[in-house]
């Protein structure tokens, strides 16, 4: 009998549990009444296991919050988010909104616990009598739990498990709701619910929904607005007013009538609300999430790529990308809208999106690396005349095109290598228009490299026969710089360029070392080149491009992020020398002279690659550095001549005439926000170089003089023909460089033979600085030497 009593008691308990689970499961399944037959497979043992496994606490999921990217002035660049949400306090939600959501979803919310048994039974009976689902029975707390479980899910499988119509999941959900009710007040639960809920059309949470549909904060919602939003929670897609205005109105009106039925509002209020239009489509704000919908999509994508490399945001790139979209970060960047606007104005003035050629400009700040502007001629998108390529950055970044060959802008690094070696700024090299370099060798970091047979490069501009380094830079004389790179070796050029941030923007490999290196090497981006030239402006201080200046978490606390990354890559006196040379490029006689503007000293260099596939102008003041490129970015690459730029066919393509105007307009607009500045004048040692005394050979037999010079460590050439001189005919009239100026060891000394025409005539020699030189050397001053420390005579 005792066994039977225990058995009877167990059956009764099981029946109670079955009924409880049936009611609860039916209610949680949107009010469906589950027939007893449906419990046939739900055994007492299964019920007991389910109840024993019920969770005892509920771990709240952090709200997914949008992150905001700001410009340097605090204006919004873009919003990153999986869900457009702005969490707020319940006190910031209009009371009418609170009443509307409670009225339609859980009118006894403040009277019951986790489960509204009365409401659940009512819903079950009503649904049973109607033969279909007419009314739900879940409390707001239960709904909050379900939304939270879905929010926690990271995979489709986890989402399915969080929404599965199973007894175990429904009972567990109820237990979670009990835990929530124990831990939080009703006010806190309603606040969490309103912040978590999906209100359709990409709006998550009550504040984002209010701003999206009505352009007002949640605190300003009116009755009809509140009723619409309250009605959306049940079916955010089906009742979305931007999809179906009639369905949205019908649902809104159900909420209004329910509020009237509960005496939350008056008849007059209800009638007025029912007559109100659902929304004004013109006031609906589009959810412009992501870089593509931001003000500066290319710059934004570059920023995101940088952020995704920060280990502070997650272990893997996927983790970091997810964190950026859900953590509610405030990301401030270096972009200056004023300078960006100046660069964009230049693009608008000198190019069109429909052009066959593309144009791009990057502007950076010397001494910090802050990237102030980044623009290009083709806008972001996948339609015709749009692109997702960022022509300003390396291929390793999202959308990075990977650069273009940089042409003669590479000569700046050869100039730096020459100055670093002690070669004077007035160093002359005989530079014919065409120079046969077949079989000639250049030293590299690993040995030597030899020019191929038939390699005979030419100059693209009219040049001085025996130019100084300054004159060669002014005219971009190819044959001069090829010979200069022989004297310096390619390794110093490579090391300087690499230390200033240059590498192959396509492959990420180091720059190549080959005979034509000084005329352009590999693929370089405007970002790389502007940053490298900025180092000259900053007297040798190279700074890596810096775009993210600060990151704050959702609580407003600073997070770890890389700051300025600068190093002294060149000695200041070397950079000063480069500035003196490139400054003359923009003075009369230089290829960049027409690009000069304003009172600040400017320096720059043109660049044109073979077959005119790309042309460059890179230049700077001490405050800003910029690189502009015009190129063919469509395979197969073709000569720019014949392609369109600014809607017109190009009949010429050059760094100064094609890319130069883009650079000038952008920098002219940008530098107006800065004071007038000048470069630091190079020292005497930099101007004169680390020279060695030349033997005195005037009046000697040319062959004897040549041997004497070679023994002293110089290369020698005897010029053809004769010159007027007081020396005896057939003897050495003078050398170039002159004996009094000296020359770097190993440099070329040219012997000029006298015709004796001035013998026994007064000699009034004069020495003038070659045209375009930034300095004047006193002819009576010995070559630079520590024993002549006060030797001056310099001027600008």
TrEMBL record:
Biased amino acid composition, Low complexity: 754-779
Keywords, ordered alphabetically: Carboxypeptidase, Cell shape, Cell wall biogenesis/degradation, Glycosyltransferase, Hydrolase, Multifunctional enzyme, Peptidoglycan synthesis, Protease, Transferase
CDD domains in the record: PASTA_pknB
Chain ranges of the PASTA domain: 689-755
Catalytic activity annotation: [GlcNAc-(1->4)-Mur2Ac(oyl-L-Ala-gamma-D-Glu-L-Lys-D-Ala-D-Ala)](n)-di-trans,octa-cis-undecaprenyl diphosphate + beta-D-GlcNAc-(1->4)-Mur2Ac(oyl-L-Ala-gamma-D-Glu-L-Lys-D-Ala-D-Ala)-di-trans,octa-cis-undecaprenyl diphosphate = [GlcNAc-(1->4)-Mur2Ac(oyl-L-Ala-gamma-D-Glu-L-Lys-D-Ala-D-Ala)](n+1)-di-trans,octa-cis-undecaprenyl diphosphate + di-trans,octa-cis-undecaprenyl diphosphate + H(+); Preferential cleavage: (Ac)2-L-Lys-D-Ala-|-D-Ala. Also transpeptidation of peptidyl-alanyl moieties that are N-acyl substituents of D-alanine
GO function terms (MF aspect): penicillin binding; peptidoglycan glycosyltransferase activity; serine-type D-Ala-D-Ala carboxypeptidase activity
GO biological process: cell wall organization; peptidoglycan biosynthetic process; proteolysis; regulation of cell shape
GO cellular component: outer membrane-bounded periplasmic space
Region of interest: Disordered: 754-796
InterPro entries from the UniProt entry: Beta-lactam/transpept-like (IPR012338), Glyco_trans_51 (IPR001264), Glycosyltr_51/Transpeptidase (IPR050396), Lysozyme-like_dom_sf (IPR023346), PASTA_dom (IPR005543), PBP_transglycosylase (IPR036950), PCN-bd_Tpept (IPR001460)
One of the Pfam families matching this protein, by short name: Transpeptidase
Tree of life domain: Bacteria
Family: In the C-terminal section; belongs to the transpeptidase family. In the N-terminal section; belongs to the glycosyltransferase 51 family.
PANTHER family referenced in this protein's UniProt entry, alphabetically: BINDING PROTEIN TRANSPEPTIDASE, PUTATIVE-RELATED, PEPTIDOGLYCAN GLYCOSYLTRANSFERASE
Protein name in UniProt: Membrane peptidoglycan carboxypeptidase
């Amino acid at each position: 009998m005792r066994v039977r009593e225990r058995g009877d008691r167990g059956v009764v308990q099981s029946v109670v549990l079955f009924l409880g689970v049936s009611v609860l499961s039916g209610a949680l399944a949107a009010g469906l009444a589950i027939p007893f037959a449906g419990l046939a497979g739900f055994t007492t043992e299964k019920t007991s296991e389910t109840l024993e496994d019920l969770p005892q606490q509920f771990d709240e999921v952090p709200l997914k919050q949008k992150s905001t990217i700001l410009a340097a002035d605090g204006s919004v660049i873009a919003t990153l988010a999986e869900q457009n949400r702005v969490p707020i306090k319940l006190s910031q939600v209009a009371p009418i909104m609170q009443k509307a959501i409670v009225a339609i979803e859980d009118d006894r919310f403040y009277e019951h616990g986790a489960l509204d048994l009365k409401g659940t039974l009512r819903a079950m009976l009503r649904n049973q009598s109607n033969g279909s689902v007419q009314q739900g029975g879940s409390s707001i707390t239960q709904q909050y739990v379900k939304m939270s479980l879905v929010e926690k899910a990271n995979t489709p499988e986890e989402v399915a498990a969080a929404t599965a119509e199973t007894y175990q999941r429904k009972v567990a959900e109820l237990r979670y709701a009990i835990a929530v009710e124990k831990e939080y007040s009703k006010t806190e639960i309603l606040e969490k619910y309103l912040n978590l809920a999906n209100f359709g059309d990409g709006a998550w949470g009550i504040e984002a929904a209010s701003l999206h549909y009505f352009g007002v904060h949640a605190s300003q919602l009116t009755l009809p607005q509140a009723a619409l939003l309250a009605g959306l929670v049940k079916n955010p897609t089906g009742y979305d007013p931007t999809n179906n205005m009639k369905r949205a109105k019908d649902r809104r009106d159900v909420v209004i009538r329910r509020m009237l039925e509960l005496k939350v509002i008056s008849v007059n209020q209800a009638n007025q609300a029912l007559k109100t239009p659902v929304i004004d489509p013109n006031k609906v704000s589009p959810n412009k999430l992501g870089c593509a919908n931001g003000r500066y999509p290319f710059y934004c994508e570059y920023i995101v790529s940088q952020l995704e490399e920060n280990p502070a945001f997650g272990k893997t790139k996927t983790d970091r990308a997810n964190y950026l979209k859900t953590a509610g970060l405030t990301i401030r960047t270096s972009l200056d809208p004023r300078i960006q606007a100046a660069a964009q104005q230049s693009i608008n003035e000198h190019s069109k999106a429909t052009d066959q050629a593309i144009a791009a400009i990057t502007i950076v700040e010397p001494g910090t690396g802050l990237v102030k502007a980044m623009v290009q001629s083709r806008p972001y998108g996948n339609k015709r005349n749009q692109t997702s390529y960022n022509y300003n950055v390396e291929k390793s970044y999202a959308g990075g095109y990977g650069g273009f060959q940089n042409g003669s802008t590479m000569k700046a690094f050869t100039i730096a290598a020459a100055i670093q070696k002690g070669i004077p700024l007035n160093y002359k090299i005989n530079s014919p228009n065409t120079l046969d370099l077949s079989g000639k060798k250049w030293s590299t970091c690993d040995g030597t490299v030899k020019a191929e047979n038939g390699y005979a490069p030419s100059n693209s501009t009219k040049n001085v026969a025996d130019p100084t380094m300054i004159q060669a830079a002014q005219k971009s004389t190819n044959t001069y710089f090829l010979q200069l790179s022989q004297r310096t070796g390619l390794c110093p050029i490579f090391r300087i360029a690499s230390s200033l941030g240059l590498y192959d923007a396509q492959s990420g490999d180091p720059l190549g070392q080959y005979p034509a290196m000084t005329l352009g090497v590999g693929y370089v981006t405007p970002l790389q080149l502007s940053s490298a030239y900025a180092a000259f402006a900053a007297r040798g201080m190279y700074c890596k491009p810096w775009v993210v200046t600060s990151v704050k978490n959702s609580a407003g606390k600073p997070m770890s992020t890389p700051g300025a990354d600068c190093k002294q890559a060149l000695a200041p006196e070397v950079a000063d020398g480069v500035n003196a040379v490139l400054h003359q490029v923009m003075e009369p006689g230089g290829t960049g002279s027409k690009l000069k503007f304003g009172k600040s000293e400017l320096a720059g260099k043109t660049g044109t690659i073979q077959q005119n596939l790309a042309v460059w102008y890179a230049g700077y003041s001490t405050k800003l550095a910029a690189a502009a490129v015009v190129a063919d970015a469509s395979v197969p690459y073709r000569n720019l001549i014949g392609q369109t730029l600014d809607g017109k066919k190009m009949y010429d393509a050059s760094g100064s005439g094609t890319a130069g105007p883009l650079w000038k307009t952008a920098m002219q607009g940008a530098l107006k926000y800065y004071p007038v500045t000048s470069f630091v004048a190079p020292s005497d040692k930099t101007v004169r170089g680390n020279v060695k005394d030349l033997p005195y050979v005037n009046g000697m037999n040319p062959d004897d003089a040549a041997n004497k010079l070679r023994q002293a460590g110089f290369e020698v050439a005897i010029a053809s023909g004769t010159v007027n001189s007081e020396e005896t005919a057939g003897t050495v009239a003078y050398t170039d460089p002159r004996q009094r100026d000296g020359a770097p060891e190993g440099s070329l000394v040219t012997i000029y033979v006298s015709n004796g025409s001035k013998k026994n005539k007064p000699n009034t020699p004069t020495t003038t600085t070659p045209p375009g030189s930034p300095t004047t050397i006193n002819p009576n001053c010995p070559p630079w030497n520590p024993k002549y420390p006060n030797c001056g005579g310099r001027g600008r």
